[in-house]
């Protein structure tokens, strides 16, 4: 809310004339050319236009490979998220499912694209991601009777009997999760209230409730009372990222962002299938059908970055999809001149901290870069930075390395 939000701080940093209201939430900063949030180009040398319009007029700015592969469209959407209240339990469709959903329900699924995405933590960042190892789910079924009630005896037994057989486990997990999600609201509320009362009483008596995720349960219930999504913490991994750590969410991967600030990059889409922790449109049947039910530990959900072999200042987050790559550029205090290398792709550059004067062949005059500055850099253009801040600079760059 207000200037407590990293999004609001970056907006004000990039545009000192921006007005931030004290009691208004600022949750997302979009940087890209998606029709639902096409960026405004702020350049006093050209008439006011959006990034999408600019790219349509000058498609060569994308780079020849990107232009041809993605039909003249910028293939990624870059964001900053500030999450104070949990975001919905959701997954994103693959291209085939996206096309089908858009044809059937265009009001809920606005485009035909897939939406793989990556979150890179700016602060300590919490999320739910992917199905837990089966052993953990079975333990919760034993220690949380209300959870067992919603899953049902038969489905729980099937899961227990499937251990050691990956295909059977995936099917059993699907049955367990679908059965829980299908209960009528009244039954969910009764069981959730019983569990919340028990955890609250135990905590008040000084008992340790961490074995059943007591603190997280109470937090989610306070935000979404009576919501079936509160029980998802017993199916999904609770992942905590430190600044600089990332998680990659491929098609059909169940997830929810719970708390913190992150950089997010994704294919240029706004297709989301939701099923809990949300007042928005819920599509339980589609979600339960589409999910990836392969269990894996929380540690497997942390996506590694690699050092750029040609530049010690650059860390690469290079996911297994062609649509985007993210670079973190950390320029140490000892370096005062730095060249942002050209790549054969349009890129979007965001300054997280530090100040510099920038120059490039494409810019007729020098640019002032400071916290919150967002630059669109055409393919094969470099930007020379003269760093003016003492502690160095941190920038993130989204591009498409085909």
UniProtKB/TrEMBL annotation:
Domain Phosphomannose isomerase type I C-terminal: 316-357
Gene Ontology BP annotations: chondrocyte morphogenesis; chordate embryonic development; GDP-mannose biosynthetic process; liver development; mannose to fructose-6-phosphate catabolic process
Pathway field: Nucleotide-sugar biosynthesis; GDP-alpha-D-mannose biosynthesis; alpha-D-mannose 1-phosphate from D-fructose 6-phosphate: step 1/2
Residues covered by the Phosphomannose isomerase type I catalytic domain: 2-134
Gene Ontology CC, one term: cytosol
Binding site for Zn(2+): 90, 92, 117, 255
Residue span, Phosphomannose isomerase type I helical insertion domain: 165-236
Protein known as: Mannose-6-phosphate isomerase
EC primary class: isomerase
Listed cofactors: Zn(2+)
Co-factor: note: Binds 1 zinc ion per subunit.
Single GO term (MF): zinc ion binding
Catalytic activity: D-mannose 6-phosphate = D-fructose 6-phosphate
Localization terms from the record: Cytoplasm
InterPro entries: Man6P_Isoase-1, Mannose-6-P_Isomerase, Pmannose_isomerase-type1_CS, PMI_typeI_C, PMI_typeI_cat, PMI_typeI_hel, RmlC-like_jellyroll, RmlC_Cupin_sf
Function: Isomerase that catalyzes the interconversion of fructose-6-P and mannose-6-P and has a critical role in the supply of D-mannose derivatives required for many eukaryotic glycosylation reactions.
Catalytic center residues: 274
Sorted UniProt keywords: Acetylation, Cytoplasm, Isomerase, Metal-binding, Phosphoprotein, Zinc
PROSITE patterns assigned to the protein according to its UniProt record, in alphabetical order: PMI_I_1 (PS00965), PMI_I_2 (PS00966)
Any Pfam family: PMI_typeI_C
Main location: cytoplasm
TM region(s), chain numbering: none
Family: Belongs to the mannose-6-phosphate isomerase type 1 family.
Record-listed E.C. numbers: 5.3.1.8
């Amino acid at each position: 809310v207000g200037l407590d939000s990293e999004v609001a701080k970056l907006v004000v940093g990039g545009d000192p004339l921006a007005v931030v209201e004290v009691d208004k939430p600022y949750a997302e900063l979009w940087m890209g050319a998606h029709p639902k949030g096409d960026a405004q180009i702020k350049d006093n040398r050209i008439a006011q236009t959006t990034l999408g319009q600019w790219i349509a007029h000058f498609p060569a700015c994308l780079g020849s490979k990107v232009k041809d592969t993605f039909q003249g469209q910028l293939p990624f959407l870059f964001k900053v998220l500030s999450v104070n209240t949990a975001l919905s339990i959701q997954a994103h469709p693959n291209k085939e499912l996206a096309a089908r959903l858009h044809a059937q329900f265009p009001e809920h699924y606005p485009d035909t694209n897939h939406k793989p995405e990556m979150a890179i933590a700016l602060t300590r960042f919490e999320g739910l991601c992917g199905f837990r190892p089966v052993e953990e789910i079975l333990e919760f079924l034993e220690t949380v009777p209300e959870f067992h009630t919603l899953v049902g005896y038969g489905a729980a037994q099937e899961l227990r009997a499937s251990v050691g057989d990956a295909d059977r486990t995936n099917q059993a997990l699907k049955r367990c999760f679908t059965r829980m999600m299908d209960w009528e609201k009244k039954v969910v509320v009764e069981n959730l209230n019983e569990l919340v009362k028990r955890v609250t009483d135990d905590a008040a008596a000084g008992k340790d409730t961490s074995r059943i995720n007591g603190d997280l349960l109470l937090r989610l219930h306070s935000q979404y009372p009576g919501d079936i999504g509160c029980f998802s913490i017993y199916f999904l991994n609770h992942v905590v990222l430190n600044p600089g750590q990332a998680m990659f969410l491929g098609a059909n991967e169940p997830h929810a962002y719970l708390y913190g600030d992150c950089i997010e990059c994704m294919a240029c889409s706004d297709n989301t299938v939701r099923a809990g922790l949300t007042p928005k449109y819920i599509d339980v049947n589609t979600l339960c059908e589409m999910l990836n039910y392969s269990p894996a530990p929380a540690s497997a959900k942390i996506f590694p970055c690699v050092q750029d072999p040609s530049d010690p200042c650059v860390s690469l987050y290079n996911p297994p999809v062609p649509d985007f790559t993210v670079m973190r550029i950390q320029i140490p205090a000892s370096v005062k001149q730095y060249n942002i290398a050209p790549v054969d792709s349009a890129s979007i550059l965001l300054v997280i901290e530090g100040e510099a004067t920038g120059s490039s062949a494409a810019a007729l005059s020098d640019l002032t870069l400071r916290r919150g500055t967002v630059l669109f850099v055409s393919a094969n253009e470099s930007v020379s930075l003269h760093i003016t801040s003492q502690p160095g600079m941190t920038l993130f760059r989204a591009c498409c390395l085909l």
